[in-house]
Write a structure and sequence with these properties.
Layout lengths: L3 H25 L23 E5 L3 E5 L4 E5 H23 L1 H12 L2 H33 L2 H22 L6 H24 L3 H23 L8 H16 L5 H29 L4 H29 L6 H21 L4 H26 L1
Antiparallel strand pairs: 1-2, 2-3
Helix pairs in contact: 1-2, 4-5, 4-7, 5-6, 5-10, 5-11, 6-7, 6-10, 9-10, 10-11, 11-12
């Protein structure tokens, strides 16, 4: 309604005019008189049949019987209409805050027990991911005797362990944990396709499925809170992407430069693997070969996001945080295994060795500073 006050004045005038006209016609026509007293716009009429009728001007109707005299003037009508207008205004004001009232009621319905249950289920999901991917990493190492092949599940198992603490301390709303949740989601999606192509154990498919579901829930609770209050997930993702672009383009210190070099290197290898996947699909290559490339791609996605997260922490001089110390140690394990697989004397092996030294040093120095503080 564009002009509510104009409507109110029209209602007020129409009611007053109609009341005068109807009451005047009944008196002048000699009909049995019935006077009605109103309470606001809605009231119970009181019938008063009187043998005498007297018209008093201007606009004053006086109707009496043997026991009492009842007078209903234009002033009375104006007063009653004013009351009705106020009631209508109050009703409009109430409807304007209906959304806020509903939102408040919804929050009240979310009891502490419900919040506790939601948090417990998300934590159990992260624990299942940490255990499941940890078991798969052990199985892959036992079968291949190459630690390099098991580093992908091992990395995800470690990140899932870190997310347990984030959920327990209600820190999923932090940009760091939002980014890690999205990384777990990507790993789960790519990993489950890799498992189908390579015909891996059903445990792998189940663990990847848990990763997909739980990371979505974790990200959603990070945006909306445990009470699932207002929050636009798509807007948060878009804003996060814009923020990541700004983080990627600034180098406030030497540590940031090291991490951006590692992020860029792993990112280039990730892009190369994507091209390999596309090439295999176009050429109708072997399904198992496609699965191995997807398996590698999932690890590179996760490692790229971990290194970018460390770069962001270095920009903010926050590497002394427990999460970033643990991420540094995880990255060290991955890079050492990678360097051993590629051989330390090769260009790629030498580069991975330098990254492992950087992350190990930053992790140890940050842990030392944390103990002193």
């Amino acid at each position: 309604m564009k002009h509510p006050l104009s409507l109110l004045f029209l209602v007020k005038g129409a009611v007053a005019f109609d009341a005068h006209v109807v009451m005047g016609r009944r008196v002048l026509a000699g009909l049995p008189t019935q006077s009605a007293r109103y309470s606001g716009l809605i009231g119970k009429p009181r019938l008063d049949v009187s043998p005498r009728r007297e018209l008093s001007l201007p606009f004053t109707l006086q109707m009496t019987n043997n026991s009492e005299e009842d007078t209903y003037s234009s002033d009375d009508l104006k007063e009653d209409v004013d009351k009705g207008v106020e009631q209508l205004k109050d009703s409009m004001e109430d409807s304007a805050v209906t959304g806020k009232i509903q939102e408040t009621v919804a929050k009240v319905k979310v009891t502490p027990e419900i919040v506790k249950g939601r948090k417990k289920r998300v934590i159990m999901g992260y624990k299942a991911m940490a255990a499941g991917f940890g078991v798969m990493a052990s199985v892959i190492y036992a079968l291949s005797r190459q630690s390099f092949y098991s580093t992908g599940p091992l990395l995800v198992s470690g990140v899932s362990y870190i997310m347990i603490g984030a959920a327990e301390n209600s820190r999923l709303s932090s940009d760091t944990y939002k980014r890690l949740n999205l990384s777990l989601l990507e790993y789960g999606i790519v990993g489950i396709f890799a498992g189908f192509c390579m015909k891996l154990s059903p445990l792998w498919a189940l663990t990847c499925l848990i990763a997909i579901i739980n990371s979505i829930k974790g990200y959603g609770y990070g945006v909306k809170g445990w009470e699932l209050g207002p929050g636009d997930i798509m807007k948060d993702i878009i804003d996060g992407s814009k923020s990541n672009q700004k983080v990627f383009t600034k180098l406030p210190n030497l540590k940031s430069a090291g991490y951006i070099l590692a992020t860029g290197t792993v990112g280039i290898l990730k892009f190369k693997t994507i091209l390999d996947v596309i090439k295999i699909i176009k050429s109708n290559g072997a399904t198992y070969l496609l699965g191995t490339r997807l398996f590698r791609l999932a690890k590179l996605i996760m490692l790229t996001n971990v290194m970018f997260t460390l770069k962001d922490a270095a920009d903010r001089d926050r590497l002394e945080g427990t999460t970033f110390i643990e991420l540094n140690f995880l990255a060290t394990i991955i890079f050492i295994s990678w360097a051993a697989f590629e051989r330390y004397t090769t260009p790629v092996g030498a580069l991975m060795t330098s990254f492992s030294v950087m992350t190990a040093y930053n992790g140890l120095s940050s842990k030392r500073l944390k103990k002193k503080s």
